[in-house]
Write a structure and sequence with these properties.
Elements lengths: L5 H9 L10 E4 L4 E3 L13 E4 L2 H6 L3 E2 L13 H15 L6 H9 L3 H12 L3 H19 L4 H7 L5 H12 L3 H17 L1
Parallel strand pairs: 2-4
Antiparallel strand pairs: 1-2, 1-3
Bound molecules: zinc ion.
The site of zinc ion has 6 residues, from loops.
Protein name: AraC family transcriptional regulator, regulatory protein of adaptative response / methylphosphotriester-DNA alkyltransferase methyltransferase
Cofactor: Zn(2+)
Pfam family, one: Ada_Zn_binding
């Protein structure tokens, strides 16, 4: 790889350009912290910045890895995407817990506000919308393939109230749960006759 000029590296830092992650690191003399180019922390003053081609050199010079962009966790670590991926995994695994949404930011280790914004930016929807989609899909599955009644299904998939479940279900599926079950039954009867 051709050696990057300091101007180029500075441009990458100012733009939080993740394409340069792993290619170089920058440290800030005033804070003693070393970062990846993509770090979302405040862009430092140019005169305080030193560049390194390896993290070891920076650590050797006494700089500490940034807690936000974690340059110590490998070149391909993508902090923001990884956080959202973890959140999605937890939501998919624990959708039936009515409190999962409130618990999530703390379990992931970021503030509620930061989590909301980050999730929306990466996925295009809010954590609430994402979770609701999962719950409705599970409810639809149970309506089609189990004999549980609406209240049981509502609680099983993590809704707190039956009315909330009804409204959400209708919004997403275009018809109420009972009707959905009936339509699915008829659909399957037809399928069996063919
Ligand atoms: Zn950083």
């Amino acid at each position: 790889m051709t050696k990057l000029s300091e101007t180029k590296m500075w441009e990458a830092v100012a733009a939080n350009d993740a394409r340069y992650d792993g290619a170089f690191y920058y440290a800030v003399k005033t804070t003693g912290i070393v970062c990846r180019p993509s770090c979302k922390s405040k862009v430092p003053n140019r005169e305080n910045v030193v560049f390194f081609t390896s993290l070891d050199e920076a650590l050797h010079d006494g700089f500490r890895p940034c807690k936000r962009c974690r340059p110590d966790l490998g070149a391909h670590y993508r902090p923001e995407e990884d956080i959202v991926e973890l959140a999605c995994r937890l939501l998919r695994g624990e959708y039936h817990n009515p409190d999962i949404l409130a618990e999530l930011p703390e379990r992931i280790g970021i503030s509620f506000f930061h989590f909301q914004r980050l999730f929306k930016r990466v996925t295009g929807c809010t954590p609430k919308e994402y979770l609701r989609r999962i719950r409705i899909d599970k409810a639809a599955e149970l309506l089609a393939h189990s004999s549980l009644n609406n209240t049981d299904i509502c609680l099983t998939v993590g809704f707190r109230s039956v009315s909330g479940f009804y409204t959400a279900f209708r919004q997403h599926m275009g018809l109420p749960p009972k009707k959905y079950r009936k339509v699915r039954e008829i659909g399957e009867l037809r399928h069996d006759c063919l």
